[in-house]
Design brief:
3-stranded antiparallel β-sheet, 4-stranded antiparallel β-sheet, 3 domains, hpI Integrase, Chain A, about 10% strand, DNA integration, Integrase-like_cat_sf, Double Stranded RNA Binding Domain, alpha+beta, DNA polymerase, domain 1, Phage_Integrase, about 425 residues
Length: about 425
């Protein structure tokens, strides 16, 4: 017989002076009463052996709940499965899932990438995951996340017009899964085949001034800008040397040889992965300094030359921030739709091509990655004479614009 007990009987049952008393409900379910406690047992035979499955204590586990667990155990037995082993396996799986949530694995992956990616890339990636992915997927086990769940997160990003961010986050989610697969913590990547269903990222170039008359106005505004000496110098040098903003603001005096008019940015500070930098695959970048750059740097060295950083912020020992030059441009009336600090590279590239300089020379001076790494190392150390002439002609051309010239100079090499 099944279900012989009632709630009232279970509640009022006592040991009646015995050390242990057992009251059967039927089907193997038994209420075991000891002094001060009542426990549910399920007794069964498996593989010829008598076994006991502890369901829990009363009243935490009610009569109804105990019967439900008994019925589940009987179902497992009908499938030739041991209820005790099934529960143990389930517990291990639950612990594994708890240790392998998306957030836990993603943080392990980020830590693993600290030797491969730049610190700034790690910071931006973590911020994006925290803003977009963790709130929806962070607490879910990797094995429970499917493509529709990932796509829902990505569509939410797309709905805000952040198409490039959606593509980058899909790539990061896929990288997290590939890392998990390599460690045996996942079997497949639910983000792997979603790139084709995302909206195409609209082409969006960085804002840059490429018309000579507009550039002339900007150069005059830069000369008239009143700010901290390091900021003014960085702003004046930006169009002259057209380095990436990070390569410019992190400059140290040991890199700059004012006597020989040469600035050598070490490969460790150039664009590239940490792995490539450690392997010496990112060469030093030589910048022949024109006369105008020397005239900016010499007085600055009188102020900051006794310290390491060339463009030191008002906080000693720290360079000017990522946004310092952009903020100065905003102050001068150039919003992000007209000009940004990185735009000086586009300005120089466009106008130097119009001046007739060979694309290869311009690309070398921009330090764009070449397909052949051996050729890149050779070329960046070679053709320095041509690059020196180009940099001086470029600086002279900028001076002519400030003085009123309105045409692109012809290259007279």
């Amino acid at each position: 017989m099944l279900n012989k007990l009632t709630d009232a009987q279970v509640k009022s049952a006592t040991a009646e002076g015995q050390k242990q008393r057992k009251i059967a409900d039927g089907g193997g379910l038994t209420l075991v009463i000891r002094s001060g406690s009542k426990t549910w047992w399920y007794r069964y035979r498996f593989a010829g052996k008598q076994k006991t499955y502890s369901i829990g204590t009363y009243p935490e586990v009610s009569l109804k709940e105990a019967r439900a667990q008994r019925d589940e155990a009987r179902r497992l037995l009908s499938e030739n499965k041991d209820p005790v082993m099934a529960r143990r396996t389930k517990g291990i799986r639950q612990q594994h899932d708890a240790e392998n949530t998306f957030k836990a694995v993603a943080e392990d992956w980020l830590q693993n990438q600290e030797t491969e990616l730049a610190a700034e890339t790690i910071r931006i990636t973590r911020r994006r995951l925290e803003n977009w992915v963790y709130p929806k997927l962070g607490t879910l086990p990797l094995t429970e996340i499917d493509p529709p769940a990932v796509l829902k997160v990505l569509r939410r990003i797309e709905d805000q017009g952040k198409h490039e961010t959606a593509h980058r986050i899909r790539q990061r989610i896929s990288q997290v899964y590939r890392f998990a697969i390599s460690e045996g913590r996942a079997q497949w990547d639910p983000a792997g085949n979603l790139s084709g269903v995302l909206k195409t990222t609209p082409t969006q170039n960085r804002a840059a001034i490429i018309k000579p008359d507009e550039l002339a106005g900007l150069l005059r505004a830069i000369d008239g800008y009143a700010g901290q000496p390091a900021t003014c110098a960085a702003l004046q040098l930006s169009p002259l040397v057209f380095l990436r903003p990070g390569e410019l603001r992190m400059a140290t005096w040991e890199e700059i040889d004012l006597d020989n008019w040469m600035w050598v940015v070490p490969g460790r500070r150039m664009k590239g992965t940490k792995k490539a930098k450690r392997a010496g695959q990112v060469p030093d970048h030589k910048i022949p300094l024109p006369r105008q750059a020397i005239e900016i740097l010499q007085p600055l060295k009188q102020l900051t030359g006794h310290r390491d950083l060339v463009f030191e912020s008002i906080k000693p020992g720290r360079p000017i921030s990522d946004n310092t030059i952009n903020s100065a441009l905003r102050t001068m009336g150039y919003d992000s739709s007209r000009m940004v600090s990185h735009g000086f590279r586009s300005t120089a590239s466009t106008l130097l091509h119009e001046m007739g300089w060979q694309p290869e020379i311009i690309e070398l001076q921009l330090a764009h990655k070449q397909r052949n790494d051996v050729a890149a190392v050779y070329n960046r150390s070679a053709r320095i004479q041509e690059r020196t002439k180009m940099m001086q002609q470029w600086a002279d051309y900028l001076d002519s614009l400030k003085q009123g010239a309105d045409v692109v100079a012809i290259n007279r090499r």
